[in-house]
Automatic annotation (TrEMBL):
Residues 34-43 have a biased composition (Low complexity). Transmembrane segments: none annotated. Keywords: Mitochondrion, Ribonucleoprotein, Ribosomal protein, Transit peptide. Belongs to the mitochondrion-specific ribosomal protein mS29 family. This is Small ribosomal subunit protein mS29. Pfam families: DAP3 (PF10236).
Length: 463
């Protein structure tokens, strides 16, 4: 009886005090008794000597590994340097600029506006200065990786992109298009969602479309990383709107929008007179006795955006107000382009406390900024691209706030495009000339199944 009571008390103590469990485990371990014989002492000494020698061997092994890794990095640097020197010499040899079926590898066109179907399956050259100037919000990761591996700032002209560009061109300038057998041509779509397999070129196509539209003088709100709208920063519930405000992201979005569009925003007047609700500032809380602001009469969109940048209390309200203003601009075409658009149809990083021990995940559409820009159920020109690298999970085919038929699949490389790409990698010495063959690049195409990044990764292994 006494023994059972002691056991129950010990168990209760372990459950109530985790430290007791740790201490009991510590004291439960028994130390092995040391032998006092000379043989055991010699064995101990020999073990110490062995451990010292083992430590020295490990140090030598680590040093050797460091040396080998540094030498391999040096070899890579030397290879890149020699490759760049060889490519510089290749520029003088125009006979190398030959693509599939003897076609020119590079197009003579210097602008995306001048491209047509004759230029498909050829490369157009860019400069990083030009791209950074036209796309100051940032370049897609896939584009930068392509430039880095090929050692050239050039992109493949794809017929799928030309069709996408011409779709929006027909909306703004319908008479410029005449189609054989169909004078009116296919009906253009103002709202498009680009879906498709991983690394099929959706983000690059979206960036090139923004590049073209800005070259045409359009006003473009370009969001290269839509996921950033739903992750990180300060968030809180706005009692006036019932939505969640993210002033850090809103201020950053307005700054990006101002980078390229400043001159156009100065020419456009504000048309919405509704007061702009104010919220909490970053690190300073809400303003006292003030819950809204109004733009002075005669203000421009530049003044509106600048107010949201200067005052974080107004950042979210200004961004939501800007969305209304963009729908009313008629002087110039307006395009809203959003990459990683699929992140706006799932849960954000934020959570709302429900009880002392539980929280509720906040959906992206509960954020004021996403709620204002996600919907395509309007007459504005909008395009969104899914980014499967962000891994938000599979979404159903019919999405809320997206018109039926707006979601289209952007294709992988065709066989002809893959052949052009492999000839381009041969020209850029990513593939060894002695190993290149038609059978070889066709094998790469089938192995990669037209996946752009996989094809580029497999190219150096052509044998």
């Amino acid at each position: 009886m006494l023994g059972s009571l002691l056991v129950q008390r010990l168990n209760a103590t372990r459950r109530s005090n985790p430290l007791f469990l740790i201490c009991s485990r510590t004291f439960a371990s028994k130390k092995s008794k040391s032998s006092s014989s000379p043989l055991s002492k010699n064995a101990t000494k020999s073990k110490k000597i062995d451990s010292k020698s083992k430590n020295k061997n490990d140090e030598f092994a680590l040093a050797a590994d460091d040396t080998s890794s540094s030498s391999s990095l040096d070899n890579i640097a030397v290879d890149d340097s020699s490759r760049l020197q060889q490519l510089a010499l290749d520029e003088k040899d125009k006979s190398l600029n030959v693509g599939i079926n003897g076609r020119p590898l590079f197009t003579a066109a210097t602008s995306i506006s001048h491209l047509n179907s004759k230029h498909a399956c050829s490369y157009i050259n860019f400069s990083m200065e030009q791209l950074n100037a036209v796309l100051p919000e940032g370049l897609p990761t896939g584009m930068l990786k392509e430039f880095e591996d090929s050692k050239r700032d050039a992109l493949l002209v794809r017929q799928s992109f030309l069709d996408l560009r011409d779709n929006y061109r027909r909306i703004v300038d319908p008479p410029s298009f005449q189609f054989a057998g169909s004078p009116k041509g296919p009906k253009p779509q103002k709202q498009i969602v680009l879906d498709g397999p991983v690394s099929c070129g959706k983000s690059i196509a979206l960036a090139m479309l923004v590049h073209w539209a800005r070259g045409e003088g359009w006003l473009v709100l370009y969001v290269p990383k839509g996921r950033q709208w739903t992750h990180g920063g300060f968030f809180y519930r706005n009692q006036q709107t019932g939505l969640w405000d993210t002033p850090v992201q809103a201020a950053s979005i307005l700054q990006d929008f101002m980078k390229y569009n400043e001159s156009r925003l100065l020419q456009l007047s504000c048309q919405v007179s509704d007061p702009i609700p104010l919220g909490e500032g970053v690190g300073v809380g809400p303003m006292k006795d003030v819950d809204s602001m109004a733009m002075p009469e005669g203000s421009t969109l530049y003044d509106l955006v600048q107010a949201g940048i200067n005052y974080t209390h107004a950042s979210v309200g200004v961004l939501v107000h800007l969305r209304k203003e963009l729908s009313l601009v008629k002087d110039i075409p307006v395009l809203i382009a959003i990459d990683q658009y699929n992140n706006w149809f799932t849960f954000s990083e934020y959570e709302e406390p429900v009880t002392f021990r539980s929280t509720r995940p906040i959906h992206a559409n509960e954020l004021a900024t996403v709620n204002a820009f996600r919907s395509m159920m309007n007459d504005d020109m909008m395009i969104g691209a899914f980014s499967h690298s962000t891994a938000v999970g599979k979404l159903r085919q019919e999405l809320p706030d997206v018109p039926t038929g707006a979601r289209i699949n952007y294709p992988r490389y065709s066989l002809e495009e893959a052949g052009t790409v492999c000839h381009y990698y041969l020209r850029q010495r990513l593939i060894r000339r002695e190993a290149f063959s038609e059978d070889g690049w066709k094998k790469l195409y089938h192995l990669s199944y037209g996946n752009g990044s996989e094809l580029r990764w497999l190219a150096p292994f052509m044998r």
